[in-house]
Amino acid sequence: MTHRPAPDESVRPTPAGDGSPRKRRRAGDVGVILLDVAAELLREAGVAGCTIDAVSRRSGVGKPSIYRRWPHRTAMAIDAFARRMAIDVPITDTGDAPGDLTAAFVAITEQYAGADGRVFRELLAAAVLEPDGAQLMREKFFHDRRERLLALWRQGVDNGQLDAGVDPQDGIDLLFGAGIFRLLIGHQPLGAEDGRRLAHTVLVRPAAHPGDQ
Fold it and tell me: What is the per-residue burial (b if ≥16 Cβ within 10 Å, else e) of 13-27?
């Protein structure tokens, strides 16, 4: 009698009619499937709609397999959002540090003008309520992007393109912090031109006044 290998219990056939049929995948692909599905649900229904149950139904991956990767849905949502932003809003290095930092800031403001802005606000709120949420946001979403932005700023200082008197940590906070503040409060617009003007204000070295040493 022919021996049949045991099926992978972590990936079930997706129920028909869920609008997103998916094939069985190797175990190494399951994490990518889950992150893609979670990102879809975040854009469609926000953090509230990105539940373990919803991801399990759409992906065909059993809930135990999901919980082995993430302790709760907020952790899963943060990972999914971070991966999606890394793909959709990459940070480039052309050698023009002020231009690259401006492009990165404008790109994220344009991205947040749509559904991703709502998701980002909701993730920040969820991160405050979840005991380890703030740490997860720092580690999974902010850390890598911030390190790449800091590297651009330091490169700009080394090349004489940016003011060496401005601490890169302060500069990044002033630029991207202003964008986040506008996104959260909504007291000022945050379109592409607004982003460029904000970036120019932070990045361009002010002209020296007469008598300055």
Answer: ebeeeeeeebeebee
